[in-house]
Each structure stands twice: as C-alpha cells, then as structure tokens.
Write a structure and sequence with these properties.
Strand content: 15-25%
Shape: elongated
CATH architecture of the largest domain: 3-Layer(aba) Sandwich
Number of helices: 16
CATH topology of the largest domain: Rossmann fold
Number of domains: 3
Radius of gyration: 25 Å
Bound molecules: adenosine-5'-triphosphate, magnesium ion
Number of strands: 18
Strand order of the largest sheet: 2-1-3-6-7
Largest sheet: 5 strands, parallel
CATH superfamily of the largest domain: P-loop containing nucleotide triphosphate hydrolases
Length: 388
C-alpha cells in the first residue's frame, strides 16, 4: 500500500509543482489551499503525510500538528517555510514535525523526506497489524491475591508511564502484561515497539536502537530511524533485556537519563519520550553479581517491578484459564465444545506446567481441536499431563 500525501499551500503554482512531482513518483496526492480545506481532507480521506506551509490565509499551518497529534493514525508532517523563518520550523519540529525545508523546495530533498515518512508509516502499519494479532489473548488475572496486587501495580505503572521491569519464568505472560500496560495507559494510541533483544546481533544493537546516518559505517547506505525514535511517545518493550551487550547498556542508560539519543554517525541530540518496559526470565541480580548486567541500568528500569509467578504457584487460577481458552479456541477453530470433565480438570490442576501458561494454552488448543464430543476428557489431553 502506498502512502497518501496532502500538500497544503495557498500558492497554487508551488503546490501544483510539488503535487505533480509526487504523483509521478507514485504517491496518492491530495491538495489544500487553506487550513479549512486541509482539515476536510484529513477527516474525509485521511493523509499519511502532510507537506505543510506555515502561513496560510486562514491561520498558522503548524496548528495542524497539535490537531492531528492525537489521531491514532497520526500523519507525518513536513514543514515548508519561507526563507528566513527557520525559528518557526524549529518550533514545529519540537511539536512533532518530522522534517522541514525552505522554499523554494528542492524536489529531490523533498522526495527523500517523503520517502522516510512513508517508511515510518509503513512500519507503524505493520506494527499495528502485529499488535492486533498478538492482543487476541486477554490477560486473565484469576483469583490469586499476588496476581491482583500485580495487576493493580501494572495499572499504576501504565497511568504514570514509568519504567517497568517484568520478570518471571518462560510462558508466564511477561509479554501480555507489557501489552496490558501499554493498552491501559495514556500511550495506548501511540506505538508499542517490541524489541526482541536476543535476535539482534551485538554489533548492530546501537544502530537498531538509536538509528544511524547514511555512511555511518560500511553498509549504512541509507539513513535509518532507530527503534527508540519509532517508539516516540509510546512504549519500547525490550524483551529479554539480559541479552543487551554491556557497552550498549551504558549507552542505553545514558539515553534514558538524557531522554535523548544520538544516531550512530550523527551529532544532533534527538529528544525521545518513551516508556520503557523490560522483560527477562534470567535472574538479573545474579547477572549483576557476575558483572554481566549493569546495576545502575537495573535500578533505572525497575521503577515498578513485576515478578510473575509460575503457573504451579497459582494453581487455583487454572480453571479460569482453562475456561477462557475453551471459549477462545471454540471461537478460533469454529467448534462448540461445552466443558471439561472433572477428571480432565483435576489432571490439569495437578500438573506442574513447566512451560506455564503457554503450555496450558497449547494443550487447550490441541484438546479443543481433537474433541469431537461435547466435553474435553483425559483422552484429549497430552500424555505427560495425564500420566504425571
Ligand atoms: N494471564 C494470562 N492470561 C491469558 N493468557 C496468558 C496469560 N499469561 C500468558 N498468557 C498466554 O501465554 C502465552 C505466553 O505468554 P507470553 O508470551 O507473554 O510469555 P512470556 O513470559 O513472555 O514467555 P517467554 O519468557 O518465553 O518469552 C501467550 O500465548 C499468552 O497469551
Ligand atoms: Mg516473551
């Protein structure tokens, strides 16, 4: 899907030159000569990218920045100023504009800038799509007091937007809890960027997080926006943060303290406002003792500390989870399994679930799939559960 561009300028010749050029480059282009027209296009057609003149007959162009900032599909804005109005552009950049250029616009520069904006839009679409898929699972709190306390604390962490460290064994729900925090806080309509730390090559970590300028190192042919910048105003979820290299931990901590980053090969400090949620199933304290994790970063991350219990420690919640997944997979698989026999439920409550909720979820998916009767019985469960 290509990005749509709205060109807002009251000077018709300038507007048409830009519009025609972008159409030829394959963009879907809308035009507006006034703020009022621009608002109408935004409401009717939506615009991924806005090229915005500062002085318009009915007002100050950058007002659109604040008006669109709250939209879930917030457009990327490129400001165009008359010669000598750079201070206005700087002000607009502070308010979230992505880029600015002086008139007369250099079309090739403009194209680069539009392309960058389109990349951000495409990335955001992809992320929203993934987020939609991943948030299918609700966070089931259950009856355990520890879980109720935890969800209460998680709510506060979302409301206050503070750094949060989520720990717990594999499959206990660290990622769903992180998404819960995002979805229940003021950043819900801003990005949730999931960074799977173990998947990032240690030499690439810095440029993944902070981005790089073109030519910053061999192979850096294009400028790249880092994930912290992509997460702007939203949540940066660092999954399995224990695999972040030590030298990067120091740089990351500094970025958090300064609330700003420097791209690799760049000189400008770029302000970033992100809520960091980090997760780990390794014992970070032990890693600190072995000098494998920085203590200062650890304390910076755990303003709120959520330690998820294993499923074996909250067996009373198993029936709730079974009930939830019964419904969930009935719907997903188009089945109509009504219940679980007492024997099957007993076996599930007694089992130790080394893979925690993930393992229970998989067992339920399989059981619903295999079950052609009205109820799930022992025979529908994996053998290691029934023979435990
Ligand atoms: N409280 C919960 N309610 C419902 N489903 C849950 C809950 N906790 C976890 N799940 C489900 O269990 C599975 C594993 O959860 P998740 O990926 O969040 O675990 P994790 O702690 O991040 O595991 P890992 O350490 O292996 O990455 C997911 O399918 C998730 O939806
Ligand atoms: Mg996980």
């Amino acid at each position: 899907m290509t990005a749509s561009v709205l060109v807002v300028d009251d000077e018709e010749t300038a507007r048409m030159a830009v519009s025609e050029f972008l159409r030829i480059k394959g963009y879907e282009v809308f035009e507006a000569g006034t703020l009022a027209d621009a608002r109408q296009v935004i409401n009717q057609d939506g615009a991924d990218i806005i090229i915005l003149d500062v002085r318009l007959p009915d007002g100050y162009g950058p007002h659109l920045l604040t008006e669109t900032a709250m939209l879930p599909q917030r457009p990327q804005v490129i400001i165009v100023t008359a010669h000598g109005e750079v201070s206005m552009a700087v002000e607009a950049m502070k308010n979230g504009a992505q880029d600015f250029m002086e008139k007369p616009v250099d079309l090739l520069e403009l194209e680069k800038s539009v392309k960058r904006a389109a990349e951000i839009i495409a990335m955001r679409r992809e992320l929203n799509h993934l987020r939609g898929k991943a948030s299918l699972d609700k966070f089931i709190v259950g009856k355990t007091k520890a879980m109720h306390d935890m969800i209460e604390l998680a709510r506060r962490a979302s409301e206050a937007s503070v750094s949060t460290l989520i720990t717990g064994p594999t499959g206990t729900g660290k990622e769903v809890l992180a998404r819960f925090i995002h979805e229940n806080g003021p950043r819900a309509h801003k990005p949730f960027i999931d960074v799977n730390c173990p998947a990032i090559q240690s030499t690439m970590f810095e440029s993944e997080l902070f981005g790089h300028e073109s030519g910053a190192f061999t192979g850096a042919t294009h400028k790249r926006t880092g994930l912290m910048e992509v997460a702007q105003d939203g949540v940066l979820f660092l999954d399995e943060i224990s695999s972040m290299p030590m030298d990067l931990q120091a740089k990351f901590l500094r970025a958090l303290e300064e609330r700003a980053i420097r791209r690799v090969g760049g000189t400008n400090l770029i302000p970033v406002d992100v809520q960091v949620i980090a997760a780990s199933n390794r014992n970070l304290k032990e890693m600190i003792a072995h000098h494998e994790f920085r203590e200062d970063l650890y304390y910076r991350l755990k303003v709120v500390d959520l330690d998820l219990p294993s499923l074996a420690e909250r067996k009373v919640d198993i029936p709730d989870l079974v009930g939830y997944y019964l419904q969930f997979f009935n719907q997903k698989l188009g089945k109509n399994v009504l219940d679980v026999t007492p024997k099957a439920m007993e076996a599930m409550v007694n089992f130790n679930w080394p893979g925690n909720i993930r393992e229970l979820r998989n067992a339920m998916e399989r059981a619903v799939l295999l079950c052609d009767e009205a109820v799930i019985d022992l025979g529908h469960l994996p053998r290691d559960i029934t023979t435990a």
